[in-house]
Amino acid sequence: MSFNSIEFLLFFIIVTFVYYALSHKVRWVWLLISSYYFYMCWNPKYAILMAISTIVTYLSGLLIDKANKLSDGKKSLQLKKLWVFLSFTINLSILFMFKYFNFFSSSIERIFNYFNNPIYLPSFDYLLPIGISFYTFQALSYTIDVFRRDIKAEKNLGKYALFVSFFPQLVAGPIEKSKNLLHQFDEKHTFNYERVKNGLLLICWGLIQKMVIADRLAILVNTVYNNPSDYRGFEIALATVFFAFQIYCDFSAYSDIARGAAEVMGFRLSLNFKSPYFSKSIKEFWRRWHITLGAWFMDYLYIPLGGNRRGRLRYYFNILVVFLVSGLWHGATFNFIIWGALHGIYQVIGDLLKPIRGAIIKIFKIDTHHFSYKLYQVLVTFALVNFAWIFFRAGSFTSALIIIQNIFYFNPEVFFDGSIYKLGLASKDLILSILSIGILIGVNMLQLTRNLRSELSRLNIVVRWSVYLTAIAIILIFGMYGPGYDPEQFIYFQF
Asked: What are the tens digits of pLDDT across the range 116-153?
């Protein structure tokens, strides 16, 4: 049941109406039932995995909380570390078996084959449970938060299960910390017209990003990236830039729809994107892109590794470890590992070159506050991010190398001989795609300094409803759906 389906629309309407009709005391039960039904619409069997993860982390929280009350501090700490270790071992073992086992077994086979000592390891043929990386990380963060005493252990198993399975953000985030979301299930949410309207506006914007922009861009991207050896130069460059906006619109759309759906019912989910393509450095990019995953790695991996407190070399090592793990989190292929490694290397090199940049700026008296310099930084950052996206999107390492090799081919004639319209998009759809990206950039630019939903609510009723109806019309007229259209699943469902 995808967010961009009629089934979800009907599901969400029913869930919301019943939610507000019920007493506050039993609403969490309804949301828990609805959340498990939502997840089981993909594969009922995999709800068992989510339930196991929930029970393990719930019990670990209670046991850690019990250990906190021991008078013997040393024994208390030992027991707490034991429960954290067991919680992580069980959860990560499940994640490893379903997501990484085949990757590591095939990699070991290749290594032994390379040294002429072939071995054959078993492999498992099953579908990756949707959202397993997201709800596993969310559940594990609860264990650590209880260990650190950031929160008290939740005694109500049902409410904790709802925290892990809350349907708006279950499949692809945002990854919520227990201290941000868990307590909200005890809050009493009354129907509020302004809040509901703002939530629906966010859902509407998410659908525009997904159905009008991302799914249209996907057609050209798939055409080129599925057959990289057939294309050159500007064709590959265009597909790569389109993918940058496709994945942003696709993932941002899911996050916005999740936040909007939660807001309709009174819940506040974390912001996951903040105009990332306006970043002036890779470090800033990761403060704006997939913010909740970055915060997870910051709190539960980077800082425990020592952060930047143990010298320069250790700082660089910690950054590389975090981004290698981030790449592996996204997918069990070498392409994702390379993608993560590139972002780590970008940051290390950027830090090493900081004195040289400072010297150049001083010698040539460059005004770092001038618009042209900031634009230069944005364009360089965008180019680096786009290069890394090649590995993220390419079907294999070999395909990525073909794309990189073929992209350095000067063929401006494709814009004049009609070749550009043979990439899956007809002329009107290609023009609409470019216009849509322009509008997206404009909206992102405004979002840097303004709360657009708040400003819209202050306009007179005629203007407001004109905007509402126009947005709905854009989805209905320009959205990608209907007979003959193969609906695109959200990209992050695979993670």
From this structure: 778 887 777 777 788 888 899 999 999 999 999 999 99
Please say whether the beta carbons of 467 and 453 come within 8 A: no
Name, in order, each residue with C-beta under 8 angstroms of 148's C-beta and a sequence gap of 6 or more.
none
Distances (CA, A) of 31 to 178, 251, 393: 17, 24, 35
Taking CA atoms, 109 is separated from 103, 106, 164, 336, in Å, by 10, 5, 36, 20
Distance CA 226, CA 35 (A): 35
When pLDDT is averaged across residues 385-413 and rounded to a whole number, the result is 93
Tokens of 255: 């996050």
How many CB atoms within 10 Å of residue 387? 15
- The identity of residue 472, as a single letter, is I
- Residue by residue, DSSP assigns 200-211 as HHHHHHHHIIII
What is the token pair recorded at 407?
């992209």
Dihedrals φ, ψ of 183, to 5°? -70, -20
- Torsion angle defined by CA atoms of residues 142, 143, 147 and 153, in that order, rounded to the nearest 10 degrees: 70
CB environment 39-65: b (16+ within 10 A), e (fewer): beebeeebbebbeebbbbbbbbbbbbb
Task: Indicate the DSSP class of residue 121.
Answer: -
SS3 content of the chain, % helix, strand, coil (to 5): 75, 0, 25
Q: Angle CA(83)–CA(55)–CA(158) in degrees, nearest 5?
A: 130
Kindly report the number of other CB atoms within 10 A of residue 214's CB atom: 29
The whole-angstrom separation of Cα 191 and Cα 403 is 52
* pLDDT tens-digit series, residues 476-489: 888 877 655 655 67
Q: Which residues contact 15 (CB under 8 A, 6 or more apart)?
A: 30, 31, 34, 167
The answer to whether the CB of 245 falls within 8 A of the CB of 273 is: no
Longest dimension (CA), the chain: 80
The identity of residue 493, as a single letter, is: F
Q: H or E stretch including 233?
A: helix 233-264
Tokens of 56: 């393990």
369 catalytically annotated: no
pLDDT in tens, 348-373: 999 999 999 999 999 988 998 999 99
Of the candidates 483, 8, 383, 440, which has an alpha carbon nearest to the alpha carbon of residue 208? 440
CA 473 to CA 483: how far, in whole Å?
19
Task: Tell me if the bond preceding 174 is cis, omega within 30° of 0.
Answer: yes
H or E segment to which residue 137 belongs? helix 132-147
CA separation for the pair 245, 118 (Å, rounded) = 43
Catalytic residue among 24, 183, 189, 330: 330
